[in-house]
Amino acid sequence: xxxxxxxxxxxxxxxxxxxxxxxxxxxxxxxxxxxxxxxxxxxxxxxxxxxxxxxxxxxxxxxxxxxxxxxxxxxxxxxxxxxxxxxxxxxxxxxxxxxxxxxxxxxxxxxxxxxxxxxxxxxxxxxxxxxxxxxxxxxxxxxxxxxxxxxxxxxxxxxxxxxxxxxxxxxxxxxxxxxxxxxxxxxxxxxxxxxxxxxxxxxxxxxxxxxxxxxxxxxxxxxxxxxxxxxxxxxxxxxxxxxxxxxxxxxxxxxxxxxxxxxxxxxxxxxxxxxxxxxxxxxxxxxxxx
Length: 290
Hints:
- The chain is an alpha+beta fold.
- The protein has helices at about 1-30, 135, 230-235, 275-280, and strands spanning about 35, 45-50, 60-65, 70, 80, 85-90, 95, 105-110, 115, 120, 125, 145-155, 160-165, 170-175, 185-195, 200, 205-210, 215-220, 225, 245-250, 255-260, 270-275, 285.
- Strands 10, 11, 12, 13, 14, 15, 16, 17, 18 and 19 form a ten-stranded mixed beta sheet that branches. A three-stranded antiparallel beta sheet has the order 5-6-7, with no helix packed on it.
- A hairpin with a 5-residue loop joins strand 6 and strand 7 (about 95).
- The chain starts with a helix and ends in a 5-residue tail after the last strand.
């Protein structure tokens, strides 16, 4: 009997030992996952975790860094796109699409009210292309612009047709009476002013005026022409041009005759005006070319 009692005691000790090990292991596990015991009236002393899920995610499950519990993804809550920022989720900051962009390149934006000046300039000329024409038409007056492109055509009276980087054709009014035929098919820069609107007088193309003293055209070889400057045109050969649509040629160096050809009577610095205007100024038709 004595031996049986001792054996029972040993078995009980072993059981108590392993129970102690299990309890210690459980306590260690609870400690590793940072389960905290909060003693307050709200939780009545129950064991709770102050979850730390990190940044919100609307597409992936979130896992608490302390206790390992998983949470389903949250749903996107979108802030609508603005002029300067795309659509953005309030929770995960994910973006979608693109910013709306301001309604104008210059002036007050009709969407956000911000004063905008996103134009790039060369000297005082705004660098534009076809996509900027809507902005140009909204302006109260003509805009000084710079267009880069390829010379597609040289018409009578030296209207040059140029195609910009967006394949939009523009009509450029030079009106110098000089021969630019060798520049057809080459690139150039035009500095003039325009409203961006099309005109049926100019083949329904947007028209660029070159009537200010600073307006000029730069050819691919570096030559520059200021249509209002007589000296600037002398580097180009004169070419007789026929009248078109009621236009005639007169000399800026005097004389009282208007002509069909720009080189008639060896005129220098000839320019074109309408026949009605010429006659209203007292000009008479040339006997040689009429």
